[in-house]
Amino acid sequence: MAENQSPPATPPPLQGASSSSESDLLEPGEHVLTIIHRSVIGLVGIYLVAAAAVLAIFGVIIAISPDTFSSSGSEMSGTLMALVVTAAVLLVLILYAATYVYRQSRLLLTDRSLVQIIQRTLFNRKVSRLSMSNVEDVNAEQRGIIASLFNYGTLNVETAGEQENFTFTLCPNPNRIADQVIEARQRYAESLEEEHEAELAQHLKSIM
């Protein structure tokens, strides 16, 4: 009679895999303090441009052929209806893709660094990381009446050395975000100082 065999061991978890895209961008032990998406006002501009383009297309069609949308039976022809439906579906898909790309651009503020994700197209993304130790100065800039009314602007993070500065446009409430970055930088510096003091105390204790 065959001996009882133990069940196969559970496979170890995949390294580098997580349930959220933000977690995959973090270092071990790093925690997200806040996630900043671009202001919704940018989407309003995209939708207004799309609406203006649709109106312009209809205007050109009517100017070229005034009888295009007229019908003898008070109903549009099947071909024209199919064209209208196809155009509407394409417009919805384009706006959905534009919204997705726009919302994917974001800034992660963690307890150790700033992570900037710039989504240019559906298949073109740039991820930049800036350690809190390299943050020199943070300032917010708002230009124009619209930016002041809707409280958005540009967040500028100046870096030390030759590293490229961080510029996050269409940032909602940029002054508050700038304060949060500065506070995170101060807490990070204090934690480094505490770690250094603890290591020094441990070293002195070991040699005494």
Q: How would you describe the overall organization of this protein?
A:
- The strands form two sheets. A four-stranded antiparallel sheet has the order 1-2-3-4. A three-stranded antiparallel sheet has the order 5-6-7.
- It is built from four helices and seven strands.
- Helix 1 runs antiparallel to helix 2.
- The longest helix is centred in the last third of the chain and has 34 residues, at 174-207.
- Residues 7-19 have low confidence and may be disordered.
- It has one domain: PH-domain like (Roll).
- A hairpin with a 2-residue loop joins strand 3 and strand 4.
- It is elongated and about 100 Å long.
- With 208 residues, the chain is of the alpha+beta class.
- It starts with 31 loop residues before the first strand and ends with a helix.
